[in-house]
Amino acid sequence: MSQPAKTSPRASSASDVPETPAGTKAAAQRLKMRRELAAAAMELFATKGYEATTVDEIASVAGVARRTFFRHFRSKEEAIFPDHDDTLTRAEAVLDVAPAHEHPLDTVCRGIKEVMKMYAASPAVSVERYRLTREVPALREREIASVARYERLFTRYLLAHFDEQDHHDGNDDPLLAEVAASAVVTAHNHVLRRWLRAGGQGDVEAQLDHAFAIVRKTFGSGIGAGRTLNTASAAPAPEVASVRTRGEVLVAVARTDAPLDEVMRTIEEALRGK
Fold first, then answer.
1. Which of 10, 75, 83, 241 would give a disulfide with 266, using CB separation of 3.0 to 4.6 Å?
2. Residue 109 near residue 211, CB atoms below 8 Å
3. How many other C-beta atoms can be found within 10 angstroms of the C-beta atom of residue 269?
């Protein structure tokens, strides 16, 4: 089989690959090869069909040996999702360095934006991959498994902020944490599917921010409501915003890095109290 001209959206050089969290040339080369194998797999799935395509053919089109393919992927259905491992690492990094004052649900929303960035970086590839996953059950199952990894990551993060064993009357934090993590992933997937069905057109980041605002409004005020802090060891959290009354005027003071929804909630509560 002769190798076709590389007209598909593959990485053509190491410089096309964004630096990975590890910051190493080897990691960048690894991601470049994974993307080239993924592009080859997608070409063949689209022209020959998923069932008729072999791993040997994918490796041949990518210009590598069969053993090289299996150094990067365990199966051919895994091959069209080359970026999920690195994206999961980036999302986890967002959680690891989150500011102490940030609401955990806001942190999770920022973390999952790394997933959307992965899709938005190559709209044409993402749209074609979406078409393939709709047509091939094995690819759809692989996609579901990938999404589940993100949901587990965000659920663990939210639960880590609360005592999972302290689930008593009046403290529904563990339940809210799991439901909220699912809601963040569901909101992301809803926006992503809508964007992909539109051919990768439109301001997907603005759509995602709108969806996250709904999730935060629904779950954000409840998480942490039943949590009991050890005041002897825990330092008081910095005040997000404060409101003072001067006659008929409300004066709001907030940190420049304060989440907007927290500031607005403080103002709304002050207005209702007048």
1. 241
2. no
3. 10
Instruction: Check if the beta carbon of residue 63 is closer than 8 Å to that of residue 21.
Output: no
CB neighbours (10 Å) of residue 233? Answer: 6
d(CA 193, CA 103): 27
Q: In sequence order, what E strands does 121-269 have?
A: 241-246, 249-254
Instruction: For the chain of 274 residues, list the mean pLDDT of each consecutive stretch of 10.
Output: 40 41 72 90 91 94 94 90 89 92 88 92 90 90 89 87 59 76 89 94 91 84 43 43 61 60 66 62
pTM: 0.65
For 58-117, what is the HEC assignment? HHHHHCCCHHHHHHHCCCCHHHHCCCHHHHHHHHHHHHHCCCCCCCHHHHHHHHHHHHHH
